[in-house]
Fold this sequence. Notes:
This protein has 5 helices and 3 strands; from the N terminus they run H-H-E-H-H-E-E-H.
Amino acid sequence: xxxxxxxxxxxxxxxxxxxxxxxxxxxxxxxxxxxxxxxxxxxxxxxxxxxxxxxxxxxxxxxxxxxxxxxxxxxxxxxxxxxxxxxxxxxxxxxxxxxxxxxxxxxxxxxxxxxxxx
Length: 118
């Protein structure tokens, strides 16, 4: 897999660090929704929801399009797959590190042939 640009990863995880943005993303991953209909789900102004949507869009996690007077938002599943792959790579590296530690600990506690009595 190609190396993920650190700035892109920072944008993804920065955008996802907010509970409202995570909820918006969940909603638009299931189906495209207007930003005004999204706003009805939160105790904040339409402008505040629009700002959250903008953060998600800049991070590449959603796309927006105009349809008449409405702005529609849709989740960018491809970007989420790439972010998920990054997390899987990080987890794999961590598991390899832990496995190596386990090997070293096992070797430390396993008696060598030189330790046996004659």
